[in-house]
Design brief:
The protein is of the alpha/beta class and 344 residues long. It has four helices and eleven strands. Helices cover 16% and strands 9% of the residues. The strands form two sheets. The protein has a nine-stranded mixed β-sheet with strand order 1-2-3-5-7-8-9-10-11. Strands 4-6 form a two-stranded parallel ribbon. The chain starts with 7 loop residues before the first helix and ends in a 27-residue tail after the last strand.
């Protein structure tokens, strides 16, 4: 066959043949994708057809029985919506909300020279919280105030804090108080009880307690006292056990005029003799564990009046002293019972 110049008809036939070949080659890549979309749409339609919404009322009680949520994620693919998180990448800075203002009170100190005259703190006075103590807090915040009682136990006090004028009972046990000053209790006319057990008090000013008209109980055991101050006339109980009080530290006739004194606890000190005379109303006298070696015949009874009987004084303890009580038989005839101690 002779080859010649292709005619226009032959060029058109060749072009159509090329298009057919390309169409046949691309068809497998396109058809599956279209068929996949149709298949998924058909599946969705079948799933919705299975929901019998006309025959069942959907409520919170039967929601799980009517609608199957087990294949919820299989039907809807949210992978494309998931944000990509890159490891070892710092998050962009965010603007946070401003921090709330703190309600904690921050103590501040004002130089005394800058305090106005009207701001000068008072040492004592009435009020809900009392006065300011050396720690910088009102007494009834550093301590516990319940009605007329003030509890300052185990609060690391070194001085007696200013107390509200209405204080009746004051407790400051287990602290580091070293001394009691004359003005510590000034103006506290209602104060009935002071308990300063287990401090390190070594000094008490002479007028610290004498001018307290209502004081009935003074409790000062486990301190470092070497002497006793003058006491108010209305005192009922004095407890100064476990101190270092010597006989020379007790004034002569210190207890004679205390007509209301009933309980006198002087045990575990350094006394050399029984402090006499003792008030008639005394009921309990504890002198154990001292250094008492002898006794006056009039220590408890009136040797000139054998008819006199001290019915109130039933509790006398002299055990732990080097005294032999059997050497003083005339000293007990007026007592309802013998003292506790060594009789040999």
């Amino acid at each position: 066959m002779l080859q010649g110049k292709p005619t226009p008809g032959m060029q058109t036939a060749a072009l159509m043949s090329t298009i057919s070949v390309l169409t046949f080659a691309l068809a497998p890549a396109v058809l599956p994708k279209e068929e996949g979309k149709k298949k998924k749409l058909k599946t969705d339609i079948l799933l919705y057809d299975n929901l019998d919404l006309d025959s069942d009322d959907v409520s919170l009680d039967n929601y799980g029985e009517i609608i199957d949520l087990s294949n919820y994620e299989d039907i809807y693919d949210y992978e494309d919506l998931t944000s990509k998180i890159e490891v070892d990448t710092l998050a962009p800075p965010t603007r946070g909300f401003p921090q709330p203002l703190s309600t904690t009170a921050v103590p501040t100190e004002v130089p005394p020279s800058k305090l106005p005259s009207s701001a000068t703190p008072k040492s004592k006075g009435p009020g809900l919280f009392g006065s300011v103590i050396n720690q910088g807090l009102p007494t009834c915040l550093a301590c516990v105030c319940i009605r007329t009682s003030v509890y300052c136990d185990d609060t690391d006090l070194e001085l007696i804090p200013p107390l509200p004028l209405e204080t009746v009972y004051f407790y400051a046990r287990f602290n580091r108080i070293t001394r009691i000053q004359a003005n510590d209790f000034t103006g506290l006319t209602k104060l009935k009880q002071i308990d300063l057990t287990n401090n390190i008090i070594s000094w008490v000013d002479e007028d610290s307690f004498r001018l307290l008209p209502s004081l009935q109980e003074l409790i000062l055991p486990e301190n470092k006292l070497t002497s006793l101050p003058e006491l108010p006339s209305g005192i009922i109980q004095l407890d100064v056990r476990f101190n270092m009080i010597q006989s020379s530290g007790i004034r002569p006739e210190a207890f004679q005029d205390l007509k209301k004194l009933q309980f006198l606890y002087l045990a575990d000190n350094k006394l050399d003799y029984i402090p006499v005379p003792l008030p008639e109303g005394l009921r309990s006298l504890h002198l154990q564990n001292n250094n008492i070696q002898t006794m006056h015949e009039d220590a408890f009874c009136n040797s000139r009046d054998h008819s006199h009987i001290r019915r109130a004084l039933e509790d006398i303890r002299l055990d732990g002293n080097p005294i032999n009580l059997s050497l003083f038989p005339d000293a007990y005839f007026c007592l309802p019972r013998l003292p506790t101690g060594r009789f040999y």
